[in-house]
Amino acid sequence: MPTSDRSFADVLHDVVTNLQEIIRAEVRLAKAEVREESSKAKGAAVLLGAGALCGIFAAFFLLLASVYALTRITPDWAAALIVAAIVGIGALGALSAGMKRWKLVHTTPERTIENVKENIEWAKQQSK
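^ thats the sequence. predicted structure below, dont judge the formating
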């Protein structure tokens, strides 16, 4: 059918159909990208977890070596107590700093809520 013989409804239908297909294609592309990136993230997370676990074991054995080294100059119980006190002080410092930073975290998305309220108000104005 020649282009000039097409009705407005036919043209509008074609435009809507093409727009729907474009949107579907974009959604398929987004899904594929997310799938690809999530598989990369999974591999990275496994390596990070393994590295963190090895780091924890290394820290434990370093602390154990510190206890053994201190047993050369103090009784065994005192060496363990000294290392435990130093680690405890470090833990208290880290926990205190973490709690101070946690109090600065806002759990409600205030800007998003404000934007939604503005959008609702704008929509109300448009419908009047």
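Residues 8-70 form the longest helix (63 residues).
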